[in-house]
Write a structure and sequence with these properties.
This protein is of the alpha+beta class and 170 residues long. It is 28% helix and 20% strand.
């Protein structure tokens, strides 16, 4: 629920290659934002959630815009501009620390577990299968009266599901 009022926020954003092919292994390819469907989230593992302020939420939306298709940051590079890098930047914008994990930048689940471990007290551990996590949330409630609104915006829920990677041509 935004501090400024309005409807509850129910959104998710990710970043992926526009097309999964062996070209990913050769260099930059077109990237795109990925809005996960509930079935994808249900098949993933929720790692943690973080509450963000309106200003942090606005900054994350600006990140989403910057990485949108056709923008300079929409190029996907497996080694240094992939889905984990997108999450790293979003996590930085919401004030998380210990985000530099060079050995984990191609390992989404391991990266998120490391961020969770290094941000105790800043994030809420979820650590459950996506289907169970979604069931625990229930429906998004109607907007609460301004006097009852919480002071922060429900934010990023970090999940992992291993996307298919191309097999190198032999």
């Amino acid at each position: 629920m935004p501090d400024a009022g309005g409807a509850p926020v129910d959104a998710n954003f990710g970043f992926t290659a526009k097309s999964v092919s062996p070209a990913l292994l050769m260099g930059p390819v077109a990237g795109k934002l990925d809005i996960a469907r509930p079935t994808y989230i249900a098949g993933s593992d929720a790692q943690f959630s973080v509450v963000m302020t309106d200003a942090q939420y606005t900054a994350v939306l600006q990140l989403v815009d910057a990485w949108s298709e056709g923008k300079p940051d929409s190029v996907y590079r497996l080694g240094d501009h992939n889905c984990v890098h997108f999450v790293k930047e979003a996590a930085r914008l919401v004030g998380l620390s210990a985000l530099d994990q060079p050995k984990l930048m191609k390992k989404p689940r391991s990266y998120l577990k490391a961020v969770l471990a290094d941000n105790a007290g800043r994030v809420t551990p979820v650590e459950m299968h996506g289907k169970a996590y979604l069931a625990s949330l229930g429906p998004v409630a109607p907007a609460i009266a301004a006097a009852q609104a919480p002071s922060t915006v429900p934010g990023i829920v970090a999940t992992t599901a291993t996307p298919p990677l191309p097999v190198a041509a032999r």
